[in-house]
Amino acid sequence: MDWIVSISILFLSTLIMMLLFKMGNPWKKSSKDFPPGPRPLPVVGNLHIMDLKKPYQTMLEYGPVFQIQLGLQKIVVLTGFDTIKEALVNKADVFAERAPVPIFEEFSNGFGVAFSHGDNWRVMRRFMLTTLRDYGMGKRSMESRIAEECSFLVKEFESYKGELVFLLEFKNLSVLCYLEGVEVPA
């Protein structure tokens, strides 16, 4: 019976060692693909050393681009106007990616504008901006048309004179009228 316990312990310890070897050393410096940053703890990351009253201290120690780890998520932090401008303007295609959020991935399958990422996000964003530009986004006429539709909506609400109003009947009316260029009489 003792040999079964010994073999079980040996098997379990071998399995644990293989798992640790596969995971790598959690205390080693970050990989060459990431900028330098403080060493994280295995599960907590860098939460234990974050000083929210003096976040600039990390920048002074590691420079304008550094890495922190919040829990299991690695994050690259950019500080300073020149660094952020370089990343978001001059190298926008490199920094345009979003991190996937697992809960939203489950519900949306990576589609949609708000929580998609990768090539799908780029396509959806381009489609949305093109469509909105076609309907007047960024033009001065859009503001006056929205104000006009709002005034029609307010007049319609005032016509109820204190009675209950079922708002779902009106939520899309002004948007649809604006998009189609149709003015619906009250």
From TrEMBL:
Keywords: Iron, Membrane, Metal-binding, Transmembrane, Transmembrane helix. It comes from the Eukaryota. The keyword Nucleotide-binding does not apply. Its cofactor is heme. One of its GO terms (biological process) is organic acid metabolic process. The keyword Iron applies. The chain crosses the membrane at residues 6-24. Pfam families: p450. GO terms for molecular function: heme binding; iron ion binding; oxidoreductase activity, acting on paired donors, with incorporation or reduction of molecular oxygen, reduced flavin or flavoprotein as one donor, and incorporation of one atom of oxygen. GO terms for cellular component: cytoplasm. Belongs to the cytochrome P450 family. This is Uncharacterized protein. It comes from Naja naja (Indian cobra).
